[in-house]
Amino acid sequence: MGTKETWNSNLFKHTNIYFYLTYIIVVIVIFYYGHYRCKHIKDHTDILEFQLFEHKSLKNFDGWCCTHFVLFLIMGYVFPHSIRLSFLFSVIWELFEYSNEKFQPKFLNGITDCNSPNEHRNTGWWYGKWEDIAINSIGLFIGRTLRLGFVL
Q1: Among 75, 99, 105, which residue's Cα sits nearest to residue 87?
Q2: I want to staple 144 with a disulfide (CB 3.0 to 4.6 A). Which of 76, 77, 116, 124 is the partner?
Q3: DSSP string, 30-70
Q4: pTM for the full model?
Q5: Is the pLDDT confidence value at 89 over 90?
């Protein structure tokens, strides 16, 4: 795993079981949290739903962006030669969130969309944002730079 990743090298060459396990565990935790949130919709407040910036053009930067940044900073640091695959996973996840928001599949009801007793409360909390992809990329490149001393 010490050889340099290039843009035309094998996408999976610099990964191992820990790389995939990290992403699998993160997805399991997110699904569990979604289930927990829906089960406790009456009394649960999402501690990550706060705006980082007051300016209206930056309203989509919230606490969840911080978790994206930290995860991808760690992945860029621990797996500095797998940033292309991490970026691809990042885009796939945001597309999944976007499609979940748009189509609201029934099999995810109770995890991603909750039946709130308050009709005025927005119950859909999974939504894809381009800002998350940007934050993920920044985290990946900073993590890689911290580990290797260079970005590309």
Answers
A1: 75
A2: 76
A3: HHHHHHHHHHTTTT---TT--BS--SGGGTT-BHHHHHHHH
A4: 0.82
A5: yes
Tokens of 23: 């992403």
CA-CA-CA-CA dihedral for 87, 47, 107, 114, to nearest 10: -150
For 9, 96, 97, 131, the CA distances from 92, given in Å and listed in that order, are 20, 6, 9, 14
Question: Helix, strand, coil proportions of the chain in percent (round to 5)?
Answer: 55, 5, 40
Q: Which tens digit of pLDDT belongs to each residue from 28-69?
A: 999 998 888 888 877 767 666 666 667 666 666 777 888 899
> Is 86 within 8 Å of 73 (Cβ atoms)?
no
